[in-house]
Amino acid sequence: MSCDYLALAQPGVQKLSPYVPGKPVDELARELNLDPAGIVKLASNENPLGPSPKVLDAIRAELSELTRYPDGNGFALKKRLAERYSVGIGQVTLGNGSNDILELVARAYLAPGLNAVFSEHAFAVYPIATQAVGAEGRAVAAKNWGHDLDAMAAAIDENTRVVFVANPNNPTGTWFEAAALDSFLARVPEHVLVVLDEAYIEYAEGQELPDGLRFLADYPNLLVSRTFSKAYGLAALRVGYAISSPVIADVLNRVRQPFNVNGLALAAACAALDDVDYLIASRKVNDAGMVQLESGFRRLGLDWIPSRGNFIAVDFARDAAPINQALLREGVIVRPVAGYGMPTFLRVSIGTEQENARFLDVLRQVLAQ
Ligand SMILES: Cc1ncc(COP(=O)(O)O)c(C=O)c1O
Questions:
Q1: 3-class secondary-structure state, position 199
Q2: Index of the ligand 1 atom closest to the CA of residue 169
Q3: Is the pTM here over 0.90, yes or no?
Q4: In angstroms, what CA-CA distances link 27 with 22, 34, 164, 173, 350?
Q5: Would you call the peptide bond into 336 cis, given omega within 30 degrees of 0 as the criterion?
Q6: Could you tell me the strand order of the sheet in which 92-95 lies?
Q7: pLDDT, tens digit (0-9, with 9 covering 90-100), for 106-119
Q8: If DSSP codes are grouped into helix, strand and coil, which group holds residue 92?
Q9: Domains identified in the chain and CATH numbers
Q10: 240 in contact with ligand 1, CB cutoff 6 A
């Protein structure tokens, strides 16, 4: 008789549902016998610009080092980040994507009997990382689709060790301003680590969103996590980072894999940080694409949640699953968000002008059927 290997897994893991990523282009092409070149993917909040030539040069230069382990401390990238943000190098933790940072926090600070607080409709990895280590996830009801920071502060108890807040949030795109963040941080007890997830901050700076790093000096329990996957366009390479107090960075360093960020990724991220023009172009394409999608939705009589990310959640006021299926049949991949408690919405990543136009055109036809 063979063992029940599911029953042998940790109780939290047994009840986990795996993260569902956006459908890859090749998978849809295989399923529906479509030409991959004709498929538009606006499903994973990726950068539609394609990689920066400077990043590609940096990767090529690094290829001859493939037989070597990367610098396990990521010194060069940490140094650049520390200089860029005027923090100590000992305050920087590198991750295999910022996803890795979220998991390092959960592994280091959560355990059975402890809990993490996050918002309803927030990034799926918060509950997954929490549950995977046997801790309790407390999802606090959202307010106008965004974080209800007062209710989140009120949900904290003596067993809370982590609060995850995303600014802006994915998949809703909602955000909060500096004063709201400051008064929230002032209410969170010192024994609770606040993970301020700023995966999309580069798209939103100057648009009412605070730079979380400004609060580090006042709140030693704050950790700001960011990524190279979005505005810097390095999603495939998996590089993210956290900036926190040196003590928290030291704790995360104890549980991280020795070589959690690979050599090509380290070289690419260094080059990406210096490539100011690419960042400006990313922001410009995103701002224009947001206006394009919003005006398209307005023409179609659809409602949406105003967003400060590189994506927008559009409301069909009815089950969005058949609309998603119809879009897929036409070679357009967006993201269903029923799993986030938003069954009438689809989340659409901002693409190039042509991709957005194609999506809007197909959507118009689908809605007219
Ligand atoms: C809010 C948020 N945080 C973190 C991540 C993780 O991104 P990555 O691991 O690519 O840095 C994502 C990715 O979509 C996200 O939306």
A1: coil
A2: 1
A3: yes
A4: 10, 10, 32, 27, 21
A5: no
A6: 92-95, 240-243, 222-227, 193-197, 160-166, 115-119, 136-140
A7: 999 999 999 999 99
A8: strand
A9: 7-50+277-368 (3.90.1150.10), 53-275 (3.40.640.10)
A10: yes
